[in-house]
Structure prediction request, 278 residues.
Amino acid sequence: MSKNKRTVFLVSESTGLTAEALGHSLLSQYDSIDFEQVYMPYINTELRAHALVQRMREAQARDGARPICFATMLNDAIGGILRAADCLYIELFEQFSPPLTAELGIEPSRESGRSHAITKPSSYTKRIEAINFSMSNDDGMRPDNFRHADLVLIGVSRSGKTPTCLYLAMHYGLRAANYPLTEEDFVRGQPPDEILNLKQPLFALSIEPRRLQLIREERRPGSEYASLKRCQQELRQALRLYQQLGIPVLDTTSQSIEEISSQILRQLKTPIDDVVAG
Prediction:
């Protein structure tokens, strides 16, 4: 087995979102390693912990190297079972809790699942409303309703508009709508009046033709819609339209949704802290 292949377990006695997010971020810095990430939430009994240890043994036999385990385990007994396994065990809370405890002068509650509790109902409600808005105004379904949006994304089909809108809604409570450019728009030389007359910030998403072709090919294999020629043509026409209208363009080819969203937030007139706070 190649030394560049390692199995990583992302473990928690609750949802595991913290272990997954932080573990994934740390692993992304080692791009020469082929990590197989195994998501293991709700390891909240000793029986489940022992079963996980067996999976670790199997991974080690398969990879020829001990697995890595990122964990957020507050139960000492369950955590002890995992620590005793032949793995690199990294308890994420242990890295941060001691200095925080020393600074704040109080002990942590050690209650699982608190990071995902609804601590600010108003912020939670705002995000839910934003998600519903983005879903209801996805793919140009209600351009007459875009005047209620906080921002609008436009771009050719499969350029990343929908996931970016949902990310902005889920994480920042922003009502993000999107409009897919069509052949009619290119013939007319502009999007509909509902888009042109918007007072809300307008952003364009673009992507390299070959990347777009691969994405479209997964959706409609062998179709004219997924052909490289069609992708190149649409992207040229879209770029011409963006330049004509002075719309800022963000390239989604090699940037994550998080990176694209951060660029949008920086360009919004509303301060980011106010957006996040809701």
Remarks:
- The mean pLDDT is 88.
